[in-house]
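fyi for ur records
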Amino acid sequence: MTTVQKNHRMFEQVLHQIREYITSCNLVAGDKLMTERELASFLQVSRSSVREALRILEMFDVIHSKPGEGTVLKTPHIPKILTNMLPFFTIPTETSVELLESRKVLEGGIAKLAAKRRKDADIRLMQGVMERMVAAADLENMIQADIDFHLFLAKAAYNNTLSDILILVSDLVTPNLYTVRVQTQMISGANAEFTRQHQAILQAIIDKDGRRAAEEMERHIDYTIQLIKSLDPTPNDG
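which gave:
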């Protein structure tokens, strides 16, 4: 196993190295990983970077941390699962941006319609999601609240065709949401800004202001695009 390359995204590199460690040692469910301190020393990275990588693996039910016992592999066939899962975290920047641009076009229109057509029940659902988003103490709950907000927003538009389109692309939108939130969570103030932006979208919908709802949604996605671009270690040739 090689040490982390400093010019790559830290959490991606740590995840890749943990995968190599698991596969090279032929570890199976129930086996223990190195301790957090040992992994940090071996990879020559901070313990916080290792802790974040382990948190992501635990979120996907790949490992389980037992107090006093260490971190153990939880799911059978770990190498196969990690092989399928890790590309999810390494979506090329240009692909992420294209997905976000597609969402901007689609969800801006959805927000505009939702502002005009939403019912009180829809508002209650989205307000409940916002409460969860604000109260979320971990990344998994924060991401799920984000996804639910966009799904409830689409429902509030009451347009079957748009809903069908969103369902067709949901296999792309949902991983995109996960990828964005995983990649940007370490940026100072990003999570608080995401929450504020969702609240602004919701308020426009409560006010039945379609134009403002669309603008707030587009502003939210433009902000996300800029964050994703800022994380790209590849020099910009354009």
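The radius of gyration is 20 Å. thats all i got for now
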